[in-house]
């Protein structure tokens, strides 16, 4: 393995700003920002969406099977699919 060609891998603090949640994950992402968490300084990256705020993971996604065109299709042709 060649020396000095791999990016530096370290623990990074990712901050989901929409849910105000922090995730400490190993990463090679480059950033100049830092944050202190639990007495330790970590590189800091803000993100807009994570598992704490995404509708799929929070259970707040829209269910298309109960409304709209998919429900109309299933009502008309669902008996053929069984």
Describe the structure.
The structure is a single chain. With 82 residues, this protein is α+β, with helices and mostly antiparallel strands. The chain has one domain. Helices cover 22% and strands 32% of the residues. The protein has helices at residues 55-58, 68-81, and strands at 10-16, 21-27, 34-37, 40-47. Strands 2-1-4-3 form a 4-stranded mixed sheet, with no helix packed on it. Strand 3 (34-37) and strand 4 (40-47) form a beta hairpin. The protein starts with 9 loop residues before the first strand and ends with a helix.
Architecture blueprint of SSEs:
Layout: E1 10-16, E2 21-27, E3 34-37, E4 40-47, H1 55-58, H2 68-81
Parallel strand pairs: 1-4
Antiparallel strand pairs: 1-2, 3-4
Helix content: 10-25%
Termini separation (Å)?
57 Å
Going across the biggest sheet, name each strand in turn. 2-1-4-3
Helix and strand pattern: EEEEHH
Sheet of most strands: 4 strands, mixed
Our Rg estimate from Cα atoms comes to 22 Å
Mean pLDDT: 85
Number of DSSP strand runs: 4
Poorly predicted sequence stretches spanning 5 or more consecutive residues: none
How many separate domains make up the residues?
Answer: 1
Helix- and strand-based class?
Answer: alpha+beta
The fraction of residues in strands falls at 25-35%
- Overall 3D shape: elongated
């Amino acid at each position: 393995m060649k020396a000095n060609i791999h990016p530096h891998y370290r623990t990074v603090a990712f901050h989901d700003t929409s849910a105000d949640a922090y995730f400490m994950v190993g990463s090679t992402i480059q950033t100049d920002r830092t944050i202190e968490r639990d007495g330790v300084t970590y590189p800091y990256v803000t993100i807009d969406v994570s598992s704490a705020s995404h509708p799929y993971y929070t259970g707040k996604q829209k269910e298309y099977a109960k409304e709209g065109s998919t429900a109309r299709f299933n009502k008309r042709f669902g008996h053929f699919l069984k």
